[in-house]
Please model this.
Amino acid sequence: MRRRFWAQLVVVLMILALIVTPAMAQKKKSKTIKIGLLYALSGLAAVYTKGTIIGHEIAAEEINAKGGILGKQIEFVTRDNKLKPGIAVKEFRRMVTRDKVDFVMGIISSGVALAVSQVAKEMKVLFVDTIAQTSALTGEQGHQYVVRTNTNSTIIGRTAALAAAKQDWKKFYFIGPDYEWGHVVNNDFWSFLQTKKEGVEKLGDLWPKLGERDFSSHITTMLSAEPDAVFSSLWGGDLIAFIKQAKAYGFFEKTKFISTGAGDLDILKPLGKEMPDGLMATFFYAFDMPVAGKEKANEEFVAKFQEKAGYEPKSGDIIGYVSTYMLAEAIEKAGTTEPDKLSTTLRGMSFDTVLGPATIRDFDGQSTFGYHAGFTYTHPDYPFKRLKDVTRAEGEAVLRTKAEIEKAREEYKKKGN
Model:
Protein backbone atom coordinates (compact mmCIF):
# COMPACT_ATOMS: atom_id res chain seq x y z
CA MET A 1 0.00 0.00 0.00
CA ARG A 2 2.79 2.39 0.98
CA ARG A 3 4.69 1.50 -2.21
CA ARG A 4 1.62 2.24 -4.35
CA PHE A 5 1.18 5.63 -2.62
CA TRP A 6 4.74 6.71 -3.38
CA ALA A 7 4.48 5.51 -6.97
CA GLN A 8 1.30 7.56 -7.45
CA LEU A 9 2.93 10.60 -5.83
CA VAL A 10 5.90 10.40 -8.20
CA VAL A 11 3.54 10.27 -11.20
CA VAL A 12 1.59 13.29 -9.94
CA LEU A 13 4.80 15.27 -9.37
CA MET A 14 6.05 14.44 -12.85
CA ILE A 15 2.77 15.63 -14.38
CA LEU A 16 2.91 18.84 -12.35
CA ALA A 17 6.48 19.40 -13.46
CA LEU A 18 5.46 19.09 -17.10
CA ILE A 19 2.62 21.56 -16.59
CA VAL A 20 4.25 24.10 -14.24
CA THR A 21 7.81 24.27 -15.60
CA PRO A 22 6.92 25.78 -19.01
CA ALA A 23 4.65 28.29 -17.29
CA MET A 24 7.35 29.23 -14.83
CA ALA A 25 9.90 29.49 -17.62
CA GLN A 26 7.58 31.77 -19.54
CA LYS A 27 7.09 33.92 -16.43
CA LYS A 28 10.84 34.15 -15.85
CA LYS A 29 11.51 35.14 -19.43
CA SER A 30 11.89 38.89 -19.11
CA LYS A 31 10.15 41.19 -21.53
CA THR A 32 12.57 43.99 -20.69
CA ILE A 33 16.28 44.62 -20.58
CA LYS A 34 16.75 45.71 -17.01
CA ILE A 35 19.65 48.07 -16.36
CA GLY A 36 20.83 49.11 -12.91
CA LEU A 37 21.78 52.78 -12.50
CA LEU A 38 23.94 53.25 -9.41
CA TYR A 39 24.83 56.87 -8.64
CA ALA A 40 25.32 59.18 -5.68
CA LEU A 41 22.01 61.01 -5.98
CA SER A 42 22.29 62.96 -2.72
CA GLY A 43 24.96 65.13 -1.14
CA LEU A 44 27.72 66.97 -2.98
CA ALA A 45 27.57 64.72 -6.08
CA ALA A 46 23.87 65.32 -6.77
CA VAL A 47 24.58 68.36 -8.94
CA TYR A 48 26.35 65.99 -11.34
CA THR A 49 24.24 62.86 -11.22
CA LYS A 50 20.60 63.94 -11.35
CA GLY A 51 21.03 65.17 -14.90
CA THR A 52 22.90 62.01 -15.81
CA ILE A 53 19.80 59.99 -14.95
CA ILE A 54 17.77 62.24 -17.24
CA GLY A 55 20.30 61.61 -20.01
CA HIS A 56 19.87 57.86 -19.57
CA GLU A 57 16.09 58.27 -19.62
CA ILE A 58 16.01 60.31 -22.82
CA ALA A 59 18.10 57.68 -24.61
CA ALA A 60 15.87 54.88 -23.31
CA GLU A 61 12.72 56.70 -24.43
CA GLU A 62 14.16 57.10 -27.94
CA ILE A 63 15.35 53.50 -28.14
CA ASN A 64 12.08 52.09 -26.77
CA ALA A 65 10.06 54.17 -29.23
CA LYS A 66 11.98 52.49 -32.06
CA GLY A 67 11.22 48.99 -30.79
CA GLY A 68 13.75 48.62 -27.99
CA ILE A 69 16.74 46.28 -27.97
CA LEU A 70 16.31 42.76 -29.37
CA GLY A 71 12.59 43.47 -29.29
CA LYS A 72 12.67 44.31 -25.58
CA GLN A 73 12.08 47.60 -23.81
CA ILE A 74 14.73 49.19 -21.58
CA GLU A 75 13.82 49.36 -17.90
CA PHE A 76 15.95 51.13 -15.30
CA VAL A 77 16.43 50.27 -11.64
CA THR A 78 17.94 53.34 -9.94
CA ARG A 79 19.70 53.38 -6.58
CA ASP A 80 21.53 56.03 -4.49
CA ASN A 81 24.95 54.94 -3.20
CA LYS A 82 25.31 58.15 -1.11
CA LEU A 83 28.95 58.44 -2.25
CA LYS A 84 29.93 55.60 0.12
CA PRO A 85 31.69 52.38 -1.02
CA GLY A 86 29.89 50.18 1.53
CA ILE A 87 26.45 51.36 0.47
CA ALA A 88 27.38 51.10 -3.21
CA VAL A 89 28.52 47.49 -2.84
CA LYS A 90 25.34 46.60 -0.94
CA GLU A 91 23.11 48.24 -3.57
CA PHE A 92 25.02 46.57 -6.41
CA ARG A 93 24.44 43.15 -4.87
CA ARG A 94 20.75 43.91 -4.27
CA MET A 95 20.19 45.08 -7.83
CA VAL A 96 21.76 41.90 -9.19
CA THR A 97 20.21 39.36 -6.80
CA ARG A 98 16.85 40.95 -5.96
CA ASP A 99 16.06 43.24 -8.89
CA LYS A 100 17.60 40.88 -11.46
CA VAL A 101 19.27 43.61 -13.51
CA ASP A 102 21.22 42.50 -16.58
CA PHE A 103 24.14 44.80 -15.79
CA VAL A 104 24.94 47.97 -13.84
CA MET A 105 25.94 51.43 -15.08
CA GLY A 106 27.00 54.47 -13.11
CA ILE A 107 29.24 55.67 -10.24
CA ILE A 108 30.81 59.11 -9.89
CA SER A 109 33.41 58.63 -7.14
CA SER A 110 36.64 56.86 -8.14
CA GLY A 111 36.98 55.20 -4.75
CA VAL A 112 33.40 53.91 -4.92
CA ALA A 113 33.93 52.70 -8.49
CA LEU A 114 36.95 50.61 -7.49
CA ALA A 115 34.97 48.96 -4.69
CA VAL A 116 32.01 48.20 -6.99
CA SER A 117 34.34 46.88 -9.67
CA GLN A 118 35.71 44.23 -7.34
CA VAL A 119 32.19 43.03 -6.52
CA ALA A 120 31.33 42.94 -10.24
CA LYS A 121 34.39 40.74 -10.78
CA GLU A 122 33.38 38.48 -7.90
CA MET A 123 29.77 38.14 -9.09
CA LYS A 124 30.71 37.99 -12.80
CA VAL A 125 28.32 40.83 -13.60
CA LEU A 126 29.18 43.60 -16.06
CA PHE A 127 29.85 47.03 -14.53
CA VAL A 128 29.84 49.96 -16.98
CA ASP A 129 31.55 52.99 -15.44
CA THR A 130 30.09 56.21 -16.81
CA ILE A 131 31.54 59.06 -14.70
CA ALA A 132 34.22 57.92 -12.20
CA GLN A 133 37.58 58.49 -13.87
CA THR A 134 40.49 56.93 -12.01
CA SER A 135 42.76 55.31 -14.59
CA ALA A 136 43.29 52.38 -12.21
CA LEU A 137 39.76 51.11 -12.84
CA THR A 138 40.52 49.96 -16.38
CA GLY A 139 44.29 49.96 -15.87
CA GLU A 140 45.96 48.39 -12.84
CA GLN A 141 42.71 46.96 -11.47
CA GLY A 142 41.00 46.25 -14.78
CA HIS A 143 39.28 42.92 -15.47
CA GLN A 144 36.80 41.25 -17.82
CA TYR A 145 33.67 42.59 -16.12
CA VAL A 146 34.42 46.34 -16.16
CA VAL A 147 34.40 48.80 -19.07
CA ARG A 148 34.34 52.60 -19.13
CA THR A 149 32.31 54.74 -21.56
CA ASN A 150 33.92 58.01 -20.48
CA THR A 151 37.38 59.56 -20.32
CA ASN A 152 39.72 58.79 -17.42
CA SER A 153 42.24 60.59 -15.21
CA THR A 154 45.05 59.94 -17.69
CA ILE A 155 43.17 61.64 -20.53
CA ILE A 156 42.20 64.55 -18.27
CA GLY A 157 45.61 65.05 -16.66
CA ARG A 158 47.52 64.73 -19.90
CA THR A 159 45.14 67.02 -21.81
CA ALA A 160 45.75 69.69 -19.17
CA ALA A 161 49.50 69.03 -19.29
CA LEU A 162 49.59 69.53 -23.07
CA ALA A 163 47.79 72.87 -22.71
CA ALA A 164 49.97 73.98 -19.77
CA ALA A 165 53.16 73.06 -21.62
CA LYS A 166 52.36 75.76 -24.20
CA GLN A 167 52.45 78.45 -21.50
CA ASP A 168 55.56 79.99 -19.91
CA TRP A 169 54.79 78.54 -16.48
CA LYS A 170 57.64 76.68 -14.77
CA LYS A 171 56.86 76.49 -11.04
CA PHE A 172 53.76 74.50 -10.05
CA TYR A 173 51.88 73.86 -6.82
CA PHE A 174 49.27 71.09 -6.51
CA ILE A 175 46.03 70.74 -4.60
CA GLY A 176 43.50 67.91 -4.74
CA PRO A 177 41.10 65.86 -2.61
CA ASP A 178 42.88 63.28 -0.49
CA TYR A 179 41.55 60.09 -2.10
CA GLU A 180 41.97 58.05 -5.27
CA TRP A 181 40.85 60.67 -7.80
CA GLY A 182 42.96 63.56 -6.52
CA HIS A 183 46.17 61.56 -6.28
CA VAL A 184 45.96 59.84 -9.68
CA VAL A 185 44.97 62.84 -11.81
CA ASN A 186 47.56 65.10 -10.16
CA ASN A 187 50.19 62.48 -10.91
CA ASP A 188 48.90 62.04 -14.48
CA PHE A 189 49.31 65.79 -15.06
CA TRP A 190 52.72 66.13 -13.45
CA SER A 191 54.38 63.02 -14.92
CA PHE A 192 53.23 63.93 -18.45
CA LEU A 193 54.10 67.63 -18.14
CA GLN A 194 57.71 66.71 -17.36
CA THR A 195 57.95 64.88 -20.69
CA LYS A 196 56.52 67.87 -22.59
CA LYS A 197 58.31 70.79 -20.97
CA GLU A 198 61.86 71.10 -19.63
CA GLY A 199 62.75 72.83 -16.40
CA VAL A 200 59.41 72.52 -14.63
CA GLU A 201 59.46 72.41 -10.82
CA LYS A 202 57.00 71.12 -8.23
CA LEU A 203 56.80 73.38 -5.18
CA GLY A 204 54.48 71.22 -3.10
CA ASP A 205 51.24 69.26 -2.70
CA LEU A 206 48.18 69.92 -0.55
CA TRP A 207 45.54 67.24 0.15
CA PRO A 208 42.38 68.62 1.81
CA LYS A 209 39.78 66.02 2.74
CA LEU A 210 36.80 65.51 0.45
CA GLY A 211 34.04 67.85 1.62
CA GLU A 212 36.44 70.50 2.99
CA ARG A 213 34.86 73.94 3.23
CA ASP A 214 37.60 76.12 4.75
CA PHE A 215 40.51 76.49 2.35
CA SER A 216 42.08 79.59 3.91
CA SER A 217 45.23 77.81 5.13
CA HIS A 218 45.67 76.06 1.79
CA ILE A 219 45.31 79.33 -0.11
CA THR A 220 47.87 81.21 2.01
CA THR A 221 50.33 78.29 1.87
CA MET A 222 50.26 78.24 -1.92
CA LEU A 223 50.47 82.02 -2.31
CA SER A 224 53.48 82.19 -0.01
CA ALA A 225 55.31 79.75 -2.31
CA GLU A 226 54.75 82.11 -5.28
CA PRO A 227 54.04 79.45 -7.95
CA ASP A 228 53.57 80.35 -11.61
CA ALA A 229 50.53 78.07 -11.66
CA VAL A 230 48.44 75.86 -9.38
CA PHE A 231 47.04 72.58 -10.65
CA SER A 232 43.78 71.58 -8.96
CA SER A 233 41.74 68.38 -9.03
CA LEU A 234 39.15 69.71 -6.58
CA TRP A 235 35.61 69.18 -7.84
CA GLY A 236 31.95 69.84 -7.08
CA GLY A 237 31.18 71.86 -3.98
CA ASP A 238 34.83 71.75 -2.89
CA LEU A 239 35.97 73.54 -6.05
CA ILE A 240 33.19 76.11 -5.84
CA ALA A 241 34.06 76.87 -2.21
CA PHE A 242 37.77 77.14 -3.03
CA ILE A 243 37.25 79.60 -5.90
CA LYS A 244 34.96 81.81 -3.85
CA GLN A 245 37.40 81.92 -0.94
CA ALA A 246 40.50 82.32 -3.12
CA LYS A 247 39.02 85.39 -4.83
CA ALA A 248 39.02 87.22 -1.51
CA TYR A 249 42.81 86.73 -1.33
CA GLY A 250 43.41 88.00 -4.85
CA PHE A 251 44.59 84.48 -5.64
CA PHE A 252 43.79 84.53 -9.36
CA GLU A 253 45.66 87.79 -9.94
CA LYS A 254 48.77 86.40 -8.23
CA THR A 255 49.01 82.99 -9.90
CA LYS A 256 47.49 81.03 -12.77
CA PHE A 257 44.96 78.33 -11.94
CA ILE A 258 44.52 75.05 -13.85
CA SER A 259 41.34 73.26 -12.83
CA THR A 260 40.09 69.85 -13.95
CA GLY A 261 36.39 69.99 -14.74
CA ALA A 262 35.97 73.71 -14.07
CA GLY A 263 34.90 74.18 -17.68
CA ASP A 264 31.78 72.08 -17.07
CA LEU A 265 28.43 73.67 -16.29
CA ASP A 266 28.39 71.93 -12.90
CA ILE A 267 30.91 74.57 -11.83
CA LEU A 268 30.33 77.46 -14.23
CA LYS A 269 26.62 77.90 -13.55
CA PRO A 270 26.69 77.88 -9.72
CA LEU A 271 29.57 80.37 -9.74
CA GLY A 272 28.09 82.61 -12.42
CA LYS A 273 29.89 85.95 -12.52
CA GLU A 274 31.99 84.92 -9.51
CA MET A 275 34.03 82.61 -11.72
CA PRO A 276 37.21 84.54 -12.63
CA ASP A 277 38.17 85.12 -16.24
CA GLY A 278 41.37 83.52 -17.52
CA LEU A 279 41.28 80.24 -15.58
CA MET A 280 42.56 77.25 -17.52
CA ALA A 281 39.63 74.86 -17.23
CA THR A 282 39.30 71.37 -18.62
CA PHE A 283 35.97 69.91 -19.74
CA PHE A 284 34.46 66.95 -21.52
CA TYR A 285 31.43 68.52 -23.21
CA ALA A 286 30.03 71.97 -23.89
CA PHE A 287 26.46 72.30 -25.14
CA ASP A 288 27.41 75.25 -27.36
CA MET A 289 30.51 73.61 -28.92
CA PRO A 290 29.32 70.49 -30.77
CA VAL A 291 31.72 68.11 -32.50
CA ALA A 292 32.05 68.88 -36.21
CA GLY A 293 29.38 67.02 -38.16
CA LYS A 294 27.27 66.44 -35.05
CA GLU A 295 25.66 69.86 -34.83
CA LYS A 296 22.11 68.69 -35.59
CA ALA A 297 22.30 65.65 -33.28
CA ASN A 298 23.64 67.85 -30.49
CA GLU A 299 20.94 70.47 -31.04
CA GLU A 300 18.23 67.82 -30.81
CA PHE A 301 19.67 66.37 -27.61
CA VAL A 302 20.06 69.81 -26.02
CA ALA A 303 16.43 70.67 -26.85
CA LYS A 304 15.07 67.40 -25.42
CA PHE A 305 17.19 67.71 -22.30
CA GLN A 306 16.16 71.33 -21.67
CA GLU A 307 12.50 70.40 -22.09
CA LYS A 308 12.82 67.57 -19.58
CA ALA A 309 15.25 69.12 -17.08
CA GLY A 310 14.77 72.86 -17.50
CA TYR A 311 18.46 73.65 -17.99
CA GLU A 312 21.34 73.07 -20.42
CA PRO A 313 22.98 69.62 -20.35
CA LYS A 314 26.29 69.10 -18.59
CA SER A 315 29.06 66.60 -19.29
CA GLY A 316 27.60 63.92 -17.02
CA ASP A 317 24.17 64.40 -18.58
CA ILE A 318 25.26 63.66 -22.12
CA ILE A 319 27.43 60.72 -21.03
CA GLY A 320 24.33 59.09 -19.54
CA TYR A 321 22.64 59.54 -22.93
CA VAL A 322 25.60 58.36 -25.01
CA SER A 323 26.44 55.41 -22.72
CA THR A 324 22.90 54.05 -23.00
CA TYR A 325 23.12 54.13 -26.79
CA MET A 326 26.55 52.47 -26.72
CA LEU A 327 25.26 49.59 -24.62
CA ALA A 328 22.14 49.24 -26.74
CA GLU A 329 24.28 48.91 -29.86
CA ALA A 330 26.55 46.38 -28.17
CA ILE A 331 23.61 44.26 -26.96
CA GLU A 332 22.15 44.18 -30.47
CA LYS A 333 25.51 43.05 -31.84
CA ALA A 334 26.05 40.46 -29.11
CA GLY A 335 22.46 39.22 -29.35
CA THR A 336 22.37 38.86 -25.59
CA THR A 337 22.97 40.59 -22.25
CA GLU A 338 24.95 37.61 -20.96
CA PRO A 339 27.91 39.25 -19.14
CA ASP A 340 30.84 37.42 -20.74
CA LYS A 341 29.58 37.75 -24.30
CA LEU A 342 28.49 41.38 -23.86
CA SER A 343 31.83 42.33 -22.32
CA THR A 344 33.70 40.62 -25.15
CA THR A 345 31.53 42.36 -27.75
CA LEU A 346 32.06 45.79 -26.20
CA ARG A 347 35.84 45.45 -26.23
CA GLY A 348 37.20 46.56 -29.58
CA MET A 349 33.82 47.98 -30.66
CA SER A 350 33.68 51.44 -32.24
CA PHE A 351 30.78 53.87 -31.92
CA ASP A 352 29.63 56.95 -33.81
CA THR A 353 28.05 59.18 -31.15
CA VAL A 354 26.83 62.74 -30.72
CA LEU A 355 30.19 63.29 -28.97
CA GLY A 356 32.05 62.00 -32.00
CA PRO A 357 33.68 58.63 -32.66
CA ALA A 358 35.01 56.45 -29.85
CA THR A 359 36.29 52.92 -29.40
CA ILE A 360 36.22 50.70 -26.31
CA ARG A 361 39.78 49.37 -26.34
CA ASP A 362 39.95 45.59 -26.41
CA PHE A 363 42.83 45.19 -23.94
CA ASP A 364 41.54 47.39 -21.10
CA GLY A 365 37.88 48.29 -21.76
CA GLN A 366 38.68 52.02 -21.80
CA SER A 367 36.91 54.36 -24.23
CA THR A 368 38.85 56.81 -26.40
CA PHE A 369 36.69 59.94 -26.22
CA GLY A 370 38.57 63.23 -26.52
CA TYR A 371 38.89 65.93 -23.87
CA HIS A 372 39.27 69.71 -23.87
CA ALA A 373 41.10 72.57 -22.19
CA GLY A 374 40.24 76.26 -22.55
CA PHE A 375 40.18 79.57 -20.73
CA THR A 376 37.17 81.09 -18.99
CA TYR A 377 35.79 84.40 -20.26
CA THR A 378 32.68 86.54 -19.93
CA HIS A 379 30.19 85.85 -22.73
CA PRO A 380 27.58 88.52 -23.42
CA ASP A 381 24.83 85.97 -24.08
CA TYR A 382 25.14 83.91 -20.89
CA PRO A 383 25.00 84.66 -17.15
CA PHE A 384 27.87 82.19 -16.63
CA LYS A 385 31.38 81.99 -18.10
CA ARG A 386 32.18 80.21 -21.35
CA LEU A 387 35.43 78.86 -22.80
CA LYS A 388 37.75 80.24 -25.46
CA ASP A 389 41.09 79.26 -27.01
CA VAL A 390 39.98 75.66 -26.65
CA THR A 391 42.29 72.77 -27.48
CA ARG A 392 41.23 69.12 -27.79
CA ALA A 393 43.25 65.96 -27.17
CA GLU A 394 41.97 62.72 -28.63
CA GLY A 395 41.84 59.92 -26.10
CA GLU A 396 43.96 57.49 -28.09
CA ALA A 397 46.72 60.12 -28.37
CA VAL A 398 47.12 60.57 -24.60
CA LEU A 399 45.99 57.27 -23.07
CA ARG A 400 48.51 54.78 -21.73
CA THR A 401 49.54 52.21 -24.33
CA LYS A 402 48.85 48.49 -24.12
CA ALA A 403 52.44 47.92 -22.97
CA GLU A 404 52.06 50.55 -20.24
CA ILE A 405 48.80 48.99 -19.04
CA GLU A 406 50.33 45.51 -18.95
CA LYS A 407 53.35 46.80 -17.01
CA ALA A 408 51.11 48.63 -14.52
CA ARG A 409 49.05 45.47 -13.95
CA GLU A 410 52.14 43.39 -13.34
CA GLU A 411 53.47 45.91 -10.82
CA TYR A 412 50.08 45.99 -9.11
CA LYS A 413 50.10 42.19 -8.76
CA LYS A 414 53.65 42.22 -7.38
CA LYS A 415 52.45 44.44 -4.57
CA GLY A 416 50.19 41.62 -3.44
CA ASN A 417 46.93 42.90 -4.92
In short: The two ends are 64 Å apart (CA to CA). Residues 154-286+371-398 form a domain with the Rossmann fold fold (CATH 3.40.50.2300).
